[in-house]
Fold this protein.
Amino acid sequence: MAEEIEQKPADRPDGARGSAFDVLMSFLKVGGSAFGGSTQAMVFREVVDRRQWMNEEQFIIGQAIAQVLPGANPVNLALYMGLKVAGGLGAAAAVFGMVIPAFCIIMAMGFAYQELSSLPVTSFVLHGVAAAGVGATVSQGLKTTRKLPKRASTFIVGAAVFITIGLLHWPMIPVVLVAVPVSIAWAYVEAQRAA
Amino acid sequence: MDNKLLGLFVVFAPLSLLSFGGGQAIVADIQYQTVSVHGYLTNAQFADLFAVSRAAPGPSTLIAALIGYQVAGFWGAIVACLGIYVPSSLLVYGIASWWQKHKTSPIKIAVERGLAPVAVGLIFAGALAVVRAALANEPNNIIVALELVTLAICCSIFYFSKIGSYTVVFATGGIFFLIHLLAF
């Protein structure tokens, strides 16, 4: 498979522009490889690390908006990124690319599931693939954390969300409903004080 | 329009706008609607389709495609997908394009700065949840160690190199397949 990476200057203030076709090709690849809850990390890999269509800060805003709004996160994320890189056509291309490979794979798996699920090798391979997905997620988390503003508020909010949801298993939606307004208000107050 | 196709759309379209935080939020309701209310599936069928949807790549809401197929064949799968994705996508499109065009203001900056750490906290919480689910019922310590080593290696590859996710994921799957053939 052609692994063509377009090198573009990163960290452009206006966000780099790409063609809808590039967006489609990128998201077809992501859509077919994002196993085990790793979709956001795989999109990050493609959009930030490889294509350099935007930087970590721009990406995390899109990811946050995709998460806060209703809808499947991968679809929302694709839509946001496609729109930012190549406008309305880019949004459609990204969603199409994200859904079509996964749609085909899930239908094939639906047919083969009875046979495949009885084989021990199936769950073993899926565990390996899931581990790779978590590796991508942790890598994205580290890269994004590095770029966050070094402020106590940032650290406290991030840690609080991780501890309550990740360690204490509090339900995600109420935690996010409280954390988002608190975090935004805190950021606003900090900015006013600094000004 | 075929009654079943219309029925699928009516089941999934409202859930689309309620799927906060992705598919997890609405799985219980999908089950209730398709098993108890409409009788499209049995509980056992639903459990099987749910397992497939978790193992497959892509959004977990693609369970809609499997249910649609079960109920009304290929077009059922298409209609169920449109139902689950189009309403939320229109909403996201509207908000995202407004957001990306809107001029920078102190409030917008505060929203962006405030959302970022929440999203980062969710990234790490999500990673932990997947690790925990994968290792929870694994009695074999060698397999646990193998998965943790895989995680660390893949994380380093993603952090330090530009190798594509597609390559890494399929190479990992292939290596695990070989390990299983040779060792078990």
About this structure: The CA atoms of residues 187 and 193 of chain A lie 10 Å apart. Chain A has a mean pLDDT of 85. Chain A is about 75% helix and 0% strand.
